[in-house]
Amino acid sequence: MTPSPLCSFGVPGLDAVLQGGLPSGHLYLLEGQPGSGKTTLSLQFLQEGVKAGDRCLYVTLSETSEELREVAASHGWDLGGIDLIELSSVEEVLGEERNQSVFHSWEVELGETIGLIKQEVQRLEPRRVVFDSLSELRLLAQDPLRYRRQVLALKQFFSPRNTTVLFIDDLTSEGRDRDTHLHSISHGVISLERFALEFGAARRRLQVQKMRGHAFMAGYHDLSIRTGGVEVYPRLIAADHHVDFSLGPVLSGVAHLDELSGGGFLRGTSTLLTGPAGTGKTTLAMQYVGAACARGECCQVYEFDERIGTLLNRTEAMGIPLSRYIEEGLLEITQVDPAEMPPGEFAWRVFRAVQERRCSMVVIDSLNGYLSAMPQEKHLLLQMHELLAFLNQSGVTTFLINPLFGLVGSLDTGQLNVSYIADTVVLLRFFEAEGRIRKAISVIKNRAGKHEDTIRELHIDGRGLRVGEPLADFRGVLTGTPEFIGAAKPLLEARDA
Questions:
Q1: In the structure, how many helices (H) and strands (E) does the chain have?
Q2: What's the confidence (pLDDT) of residue 340?
Q3: How far apart are CA 155 and CA 187, in angstroms?
Q4: How far apart are CA 198 and CA 376, in angstroms?
Q5: b/e for 66-94, b at 16 or more Cβ within 10 A?
Q6: What is the model's pLDDT at position 496?
Q7: What pLDDT sits at residue 64?
């Protein structure tokens, strides 16, 4: 048999989950608790139908037409191209040539209500229909068997008309009858969920539970409701996005730093920059970003902790012109509020940046700030693993900044230890020499090849970032507070004067 043409939802993320949309000419169930986004999503489904030239019908038993128009207006939509049937009062009779019929659902028998809907469908001949909601029919039926027979009758009525029908169920009825009845009858089932966290905005997610004869992306997918409609963020699957790329080195523009990393980090690898606060992790990442932009490559930075203005002022003072690269379109810095953003949305943003802007470098600053703002999220490390796998397979050089808890002494990696995920680990530490606190840098792991096992001094001043010669004479390295006891000659001094 020839596959049915697909009905797009008009939501790019959801269409990606459904691999193009819903097979047309079937009955589908859209279920979810109140506030999960069912009405908004169904209106987007009809809006997309109007754009495609289909006649669309919205049958409402639980909301008034004015309430629907208010929802549409909040998103900047016009429902002028959608026919509405409102079954909510007994002031008019359906026989008139109108788009609305008005009956109290509790005053009309179930069969008569179904008959009214069928008459309007025969008159309008729509290609897309939304039925909101089944809870009213369930109350009218009062008996599960009678309710199932009426829904089956509706399905058989719509089937020869090649109409794509979306039934909405708000899950307000008691018992599990709705699952056994509607899921078995429907050609496909899409479930929406809304749940509140202890802190931050409520989270929403979507799952396609069933889709007969059509492949889809299984699992949960985060979604949000913004002005303009529902946005769905498909779960990232790294294995689906492998591309061929050259394994060339990524240079920083600082000779000693490239020597320390064995000639530069390779493309398609991830580097973890870890160390106490103030050791220069973000500055080190920005050195690589500035060098990449100078080569004409696109870069993306996600800031969870530091304000973008502060970051730009700092780097400009060091001679890294990030503002100019932003104006030229080579660099984009995004301020992220993790209390308002689910991890699925963050992964989707990174995915879009790589796919659409062809970014060759991504910086995530920092992982601890992201995790601390979402203590209730599960499997965050697994999602980060999938995200890094996608970036590596796309040839993107990734820098992850993960601050250690504490400044001196014994340091703690915190709740999120991603050192085993990263291909390269760069450790920055404070050390003491000649009565001054200085910074040290070393590469302690590099899967991509050889690297120096030395400790070098890292110095940051008004003229940029420098890495000194290897320092050999240390004492107390394993204590967490190393002290340099060698000669003063290898140590770096400020160049501001």
A1: 14, 24
A2: 82
A3: 10
A4: 8
A5: eebeeebeebebebeebbbbbbbeeeeeb
A6: 56
A7: 85
Q: In the numeric block, which tokens belong to residue 244?
A: 């061929």
The domain defined by 240-484 folds into Rossmann fold (3.40.50)
Enter the DSSP assignment of 243: -
* Per-position DSSP letters for 373-408, written without gaps between them: T-TT-SSHHHHHHHHHHHHHHTT-EEEEEEEPBSSS
Which residue(s) pair with 77 in the sheet? Answer: none
Q: Which two tokens stand for residue 252?
A: 């920083």
pLDDT on residue 172: 75
CATH class label, 6-235 = alpha beta
The full set of domain ranges for the chain reads 6-235, 240-484
354-382 CB burial, b ≥16 within 10 A, e <16: beeeebbbbbbbbbbbbbbbbeebeebbe
Residues of the chain short of pLDDT 50, as ranges, are 89-108, 176-177, 409, 497
| pTM for the full predicted model | 0.85
Contacts of 146 (CB under 8 A, 6+ apart): 110
pLDDT of 377 reads: 62
Name every residue whose Cβ is closer than 8 Å to that of residue 237 and which is 6 or more positions away in sequence.
Answer: 217, 386
Residue identified by tokens 């993107």 is 396
For 327, residues 6+ apart whose C-beta sits below 8 A from its C-beta are none
- pLDDT at site 349: 93
Query: Is it true that 6-235 and 240-484 share their CATH fold?
Result: yes
Distance CA 92, CA 123 (A): 17
Whether residue 105 has a cis bond before it, omega within 30° of 0: no
Burial readout 223-238 (b: 16 or more C-beta within 10 A, e: otherwise): bbbeeebbbbbbbbeb
How far apart are alpha carbons 110 and 257 in whole angstroms? 76
Q: What is the pLDDT of residues 455-497, one digit of tens each?
A: 899 999 888 899 998 888 877 765 666 778 887 778 887 775 4
pLDDT of res. 311: 95
The whole-angstrom separation of Cα 184 and Cα 192 is: 18
CA proximity to 340, closest of 470, 240, 248, 204: 204
Cα(491)–Cα(108) distance, integer angstroms: 89
> pLDDT at position 92, please?
45
CB atoms under 10 Å from CB of 125, counted, come to: 10
